[in-house]
Amino acid sequence: MPYPDEIVLPLRQHAGKPAKLCVKVGDRVERGDKVGEADGFMSVPIHASAAGTVVDVDWWPHPDGTMAEAVRIKVDRYAPQVARPRMVPHWEGLTTEQVVKAVQDAGVVGLGGAAFPTHVKLAPPKDHPVHTLIINGAECEPYLTSDHRTMVEYPERVHFGIRVMMRAMGVQKCVIGVERNKPDAIAALERTAPTDLDVTILPLTVKYPQGAEKMLIHAVTGVEVPSGKLPVTVGVVVQNVGSVSAIAEVFETGLPLIERIVTVSGHGLRKPANLIVPVGTKLRDLLAFCDGVTPDAAEVIIGGPMMGQAVADLDAPVIKGTTGVVVIEKGETREAGVYPCIHCGRCLEACPVFLNPSLLGDLARVQRYDEMAELHLADCMLCGSCAYVCPSNIPLSQLFQASKIALRRAQAAVA
Amino acid sequence: MSADKLIVTASPHIRSLDSTPRIMWHVVASLVPVVLSAAFFFGASALLQVVTAVAVALLTERATGKGGAIADGSATITGLLLGLSLPAGFPLWMTALGAAFAIVFGKQIWGGLGQNVFNPALVGRAFLQGAFPVAITTWPSVGGSFFTLRGDLFAIPFTHPLPNAVTSATPLGLLKFEGKGTALTDLVIGSTGGSLGETAALVILAGGAYLVWRGYLNWRIPVSVIATVMALSAMLHFVDATKPDPMFMVFSGGLMLGAVYMATDMVTSPLTNLGKWVFGIGIGILVVVIRVWGGLPEGVMYAILFMNAFTPFINRATQPRVFGTPLRSAA
Prior knowledge:
heterodimer, A: 415 residues, 13 helices, 16 strands, 21% strand, B: 331 residues
């Protein structure tokens, strides 16, 4: 989509420490210039996605519903919007450390939604050897198709990113997991697969939440990541298709992560599309580019409808972790009425990690958080499957999220 | 997109179309053919029984429940099941009392829908069984004109009915107390004495199959109950041929209604699929034990109520293993 008049770049767009501001009001920035520096290893820089002038550095609505410090840039309508000439690192000559550094400098984070800094995954702890790289092309959230389009339209880039990662990490084996309902993506990846690397494209059963990291690892390797542990403990690292293609771009063009593919969809939207969107584009501008919303549009969701976040303010921008924007209509939103739990057991059948959401829900209502912790609340990934199937419309995942926060507070108070 | 009048809710933002009332009303709908077949065998008396039970259940729900609780359909089910578990000639004032008892003591004092331990309809019936043991075992014969009223339906409240009807024992009673068998075809079709809903096994199975197909009924419970009763009674019949054969056991008495509609009450049955098997097998064993060795001819009601009491323990014992935890964790 074309550049909007103004872009907003929150300094907090990734998991970990927010970036450190490195511009001031009045500064001229070119496309790809840093506006925020990485603050430590668990952090990445933020880059300007368009040339223009910094007009403000202040609190601004963040797509997660809070306010966050953000750099507002008035886009220069007459600038050619080409990035400054930059060195394209010749990846084959780089050491692992240099690759990690280059990826961090480019601000690459997991584009599947959680926005975990990608370079951290490239440097796994020494005591846990990684034997398999798993590429997440499951994309199980309803409506979202940005990874799907990436695989269909840029399969070479995906494979190039995989090549860089495998070399950097010294991994011999890579599996790309794609849900079976995307045969064109599987075909495109098969067609372009390299012959000199052990890269397998594995069609996966179509089910939600197949793309959840631990579910995907189980589907690909048959191994369950132990409760409370990271995937690296079973020797695998998972990267999203979008992140891999972002890495590829770094080593193809030298450009940092300043734009991403966003699915704009939902019944409440006039013209659904997958768009390459400059990071920092306000939702309002994005929706307007898609011919606006229908009169019945009621809720705007960042991410997919299962785990995404409803926004209250359309001035919030698209950030690096924004996989999609889904507009749903009045009739599709949740009803208000909640019935008592009738213990039908559907949530137990739905839960991908085999918790007892019915019992946990009862405990959450009476705030017995310690008992919930004993029943493995920590393993709940808030996928929303239980709340989706609940015939009594009990907001289970909301209760669990609140309980997790309450538990964290209680633990912080003790420590 | 004028002012951003946006709805902000927590995820997930979409949900399945099924709702608790929808499930309940589907159960009600699937019971309609059972009521109609009861009317076919027992005439207008059957309809009067069922209508009375449902009406009183709803009125009681209205009087004691939260606003709008009638709409969830659960009181209607309680009324229907209670009505179907009574004989056609049962005095209506007793039916009304039982329905009120079922709602108040079977459900509301526990905290309303979802909180009760015992199946409300069976609580009502157990109360009636204890209070009016003679009336509840007076079984009018099948047949006769549609409009012939069975028994002493309109007995004045607080009086006992006059034994003025043509009665017949149930197949289970016949077997237990008189040593007589009943033809299997009569049992399957339902042209035998008994409570309203005890006699139409095929219609009940069809209703249950519909609910299973819609996903509103967990097939594990009826299958495990029926399979257990068949297996156990087959063994007994093999060892001692005077004991009833498996087909008789399955198609007589309240087993079908109990296995398909009462044991499967979501509120009072276990949550886990493994628990549902345990629950169903437990009911099956108890039914056979009570029928074969107990003092009563029929044991479905007590078997289900007894297993209802075990449901919390079954739930605790059959928690699934949480993903990523070793087998036999202490969950």
